[in-house]
Amino acid sequence: MSDNLSQLKGLRPAPARGTRMLPEGTFANDVAVITGGGSGLGKAIAAEFGRLGGAVAIASRDPDKRARGVAAVEEAGGRAIGVQLDVRDPEAVKACFDEVEGQLGPITQLVNNAAGNLAGASEDFSLNAWRAVTGIVLDGTWICSTEFARRRIADGLGGSILNIGATYSWTGGPGTSPSAAAKAGVTNLTQSLAVEWAPYDIRVNCLVPGLFPHEDRAAHLQFVDKDKSDLDHRQPALRVGQTHELGWAAAYLCSDYAAFCSGHAFVLDGANWLRRSLRMPVFEPVRSWAPAKRQK
Question: Which of 28, 73, 219, 253 has a CA that sits 20 to 30 A from residue 111's CA?
Fold first, then answer.
């Protein structure tokens, strides 16, 4: 760390995990489906919804992750169920929503958090690899969102949809082209659906996380932060995000306190994505990240 950085403190830390950002019982009358809610950022979001009184459905293909998501919500004082779901399958989405509504009641909050990613050179990705990512990130977001909207338009209850974006949807994502392209689609879809569904009291927003390290990072992506003990000092904030901060942001955007907020992309990254200047960061060719390997 340079002498200049050693004299700076960066952005102040957030309040402790478990602190309520909104009034107790904010989601007491709500049912939330959180796709991919059993690990990482999705689990943090699920816990905050439960802490604020919401009934939470952890929707995931993986039974172990579903169990961990349910446990996180219950630890926060909420109630939750786990539901099998492959977001790429419209019939599976319909069955999932039927099951949740049969057990908990009408779904009023949807968080499209399920994601997939691959890191590597674009010329090494097969079409199947491309579709594996875009099918979850973009297709899955559209399938879940339209199923949610059809139900809430029909019964007049309204509700809120929160998509999970990425800052490289605006800048491009060298080394992660399938995800970057899909996230760009999610950002655009957020804006389109917000306009279409506002007359039905359905809000659609997008939460765009920065660097929030967590223990659930997929094994094939763990190399990204390997041997980087200086992650804090790669950020203007001089710290990375804490996952419960993301949970607070998600809760606000889905709550009635944000009732006039729709079509918005909320970036939570300590200003990191804006940091390019005359003194550019060192460029790393994609093939220098990890050994080349064709993604099938």
Answer: 219
- How far from each other are the two terminal CA atoms of the chain, in whole angstroms? 40
Of 168, 200, 252, 257, the active-site residue reads 168
Q: How far is CA 229 from the centre of its chain?
A: 25
Q: How far is CA 67 from CA 58, 73, 113, in A?
A: 8, 10, 17
**81-138 pLDDT tens trace:** 999 999 999 999 999 999 999 999 999 999 999 998 888 899 999 999 999 999 999 9
**For residue 51, which of 22, 81, 13 has the smallest C-alpha distance?**
22
Rounded Cα distance between 101 and 107, Å, is 6
Quick count: other Cβ atoms within 10 Å of Cβ 102?
Answer: 8
pTM of model > 0.85:
yes
The SS3 assignment for 189 reads helix
To the query of whether residue 257 is one of the catalytic residues in this protein, the response is no
For domain 23-288, give the CATH superfamily: NAD(P)-binding Rossmann-like Domain (3.40.50.720)
Q: How many CB atoms lie within 10 A of CB 153?
A: 16
Q: Provide DSSP, 17-84.
A: TT--SS-TTTTTT-EEEEETTTSHHHHHHHHHHHHTT-EEEEEES-HHHHHHHHHHHHHTT-EEEEEE
CA distance 255 to 83: 23
CA 244 distance to own-chain centroid: 12
Where are the domains positioned within the chain?
23-288
